[in-house]
């Protein structure tokens, strides 16, 4: 059993090495092909062309229970959230448990500014509201992080948890500006007209939203990757590994922690803004606190500190349960995987933290940190006759 | 701002606040004990409380009480309450210990970084809440009305009910008992020693793992008592009942100085009172926000809490 696992791991590592040794052009072409594949993924003709049978026995990627493009969009939302949270948890080592709070804040900002039903009455176009939503979430991240990031890291966890819960509680009040469960309807779609004269972003077809999200993910990944490889990224790693040492070496730790927190918040705000544009209707039921833990599980599962890991984790946590629902139909079992989602991923978090804290696709440096700490364990001799 | 409401009901708000604060204080003790020894926010503690509420309810159901049964006679009532208390406290303690053994101890063995503990804690919290959520179909459950509320006397025009007196009385007894235990007993000395300096304590022959287990047991027992009081007072439970209580209890623990037992009592009572004042001033909707706002303000100006931190230094 372990032998095969070792072998599999060896093969995987070998593939990785071979990939790294390929000429640069080939690697670029490979990545471009992968991206193109992701863009084609929701199109029906693509599967017909490949000769897959479409229908209930459709097994490969399709989710039979729900609209495939819709599932892909939700998965993309999750991936982007995971990439954003990865900056906070993975790079800077700060535990943000209220990540969904920022997501809700972004969505509500867009809804309030654009909807004719909101009490603001501004009725901005969607595109104008998005940058503002990102700014609002970023500023709220700074306001929230300011007092808490100066303290021990673990207070941040509880304050962010409280923050997300307060946002939800406020949103659930019916008489507040967020209008509780009645919510804010008639949020406009993103602009744009297709070649046939119809608006590009409609109600029925989720594909354009998926493509929009995919594009945003690519842009955010590019930005985050460059940040992580820059002076800022090195400061984050220093803070994560040993904050006191970093401070002594002259890294302004508070500043960089605040940066990480604010950038993470801004990414969540952006995601929320796009979500509002697709959904056109925002109410308090859409921002359950449990989702924060799902995003965290995605980052941990994939491998905190590694953007690839965050993508893999985000895709798995959302896509897998949806896909399993369809599989259950095939086997003839009524099994709602989404019902057990949080339970399962809660267990996944615990098990991963014990047995593979570096995640499925680990960041090399962070994996080494864990291994180092494990070596430092003082052998604990229990006193024999206490 | 509704000043008439606030000043008109000032005594009543204070008494309700004290009574609610007492429950927060009991839960806060669990956070404070674990934090004092392990420097870990045990997120799963809110679920330890939730398990207590459910097991007490099931005990009563097993004894043949349901929502519609009339309030029993004094002897039967006492038996029902004691049975509920014992079962809830034991179940909560067992839950807390299970979390420690399954989730935290393996991490300690591997010398995991603090972030790993926090992440595991939140995972454990959601696993517990969700398994109860799935098991109970996420429905709220009503309690048998064991003690009918009646007004015993009035203070400045505010009615004091028997249930409120019971809650305050039980909390004070538990609090004094725990304080004496930690400060005077041999086991309590072990707790204080590990809290002060774990390595040195181990060299002096204190079994660290046993102390940590003891701390989880004590926290669980307190949460179980709080759960019983909650059942008697509020008469319902749900799989996520622990979440908000846990958040507030943690705020209370930080308010009084986390790691400080007396601080937890002070913080709990203060938070309960502050919440009710806020509800009187701004309307009931804002009640749940008070704890969070207090927490953030406190962290800005006095992060060590009112009575200061450290379980090790908390002595008579």
TrEMBL record, chain A:
Keyword Kinase belongs to the record: no
The organism's place on the tree of life at top rank: Bacteria
InterPro entries with a match to the protein in the record: ABC_transp_permease, LivM-like
Membrane-crossing segments per the record: 28-47, 68-91, 97-114, 126-149, 209-228, 258-275, 287-320, 340-356
Keywords noted in UniProt: Cell membrane, Membrane, Transmembrane, Transmembrane helix
Location of this chain's protein in the cell: Cell membrane
Primary localisation category: membrane
Membrane topology: Multi-pass membrane protein
Protein name: Branched-chain amino acid ABC transporter permease
Classification of source organism: Bacteria, Bacillati, Actinomycetota, Actinomycetes, Micromonosporales
Automatic annotation (TrEMBL), chain B:
Residue ranges of coiled coil: none
Alphabetized UniProt keyword annotations: Amino-acid transport, Cell inner membrane, Cell membrane, Membrane, Transmembrane, Transmembrane helix, Transport
Location(s), subcellular: Cell membrane
Pfam families reported in the protein's UniProt record: BPD_transp_2
Membrane topology: Multi-pass membrane protein
TM ranges: 22-41, 77-103, 115-135, 155-178, 211-233, 239-258, 289-308
Family stated for the protein in its record: Belongs to the binding-protein-dependent transport system permease family. LivHM subfamily.
Record protein name field: Branched-chain amino acid ABC transporter permease
Source organism (scientific name): Micromonospora thermarum
